[in-house]
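[Automated response] Your request has been received and processed.

Submitted sequence:
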Amino acid sequence: MIIGYARVSTDGQELDAQQTALRSAGAERVYAEKESGAKTDRRQLARAINALNAGDVLLVTRLDRLARSTRDLLNVLDAVGKAGAGFRSLADPMIDTTSPHGKLILAVLAALAEFERSMILARTAEGRTRAMANGVRFGRKRKLSRYQIAEALARREAGETTTEIGRLFNVSHSTISRLG
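Generated structure:
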């Protein structure tokens, strides 16, 4: 069975042209929605994928109706593959998991996405190292200044409870109990 998926981003856009094209291409069922492609948890897309059985095909008019990024596309195609189904795009005939050529193109896309992700991680780590060398402190901002920490420790040594000290500095008792 061929199952179609149509999507537009805004209420001002219409789904009619996509639905007609999908039905003309043999889609027996069409799931359609007006949602941003940036959302990865689109209800009708999930229903379309859940409706797939082994040997079925998920069909879209164009790739950008399905996914905004290579990573998102690969995640959707992984779910389609796990259902034992194939995928085709009318406007992008090279993306067709029902053919050997389409599978090759997807393998290349997956490799590129993995490479892109590793490059992003490397650049991020490099930037973090540079920032730390320049004295940038990462993590959440401290709730107490150095003076307040010294004062809180002195009060704790003097016998005040962590709850009393916490109230004084407007922090929780656990913040006080974690101090040096």
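Summary generated for your ticket: The chain has a mean pLDDT of 88. The chain is about 50% helix and 10% strand.
If you did not submit this request, please reply to this message.
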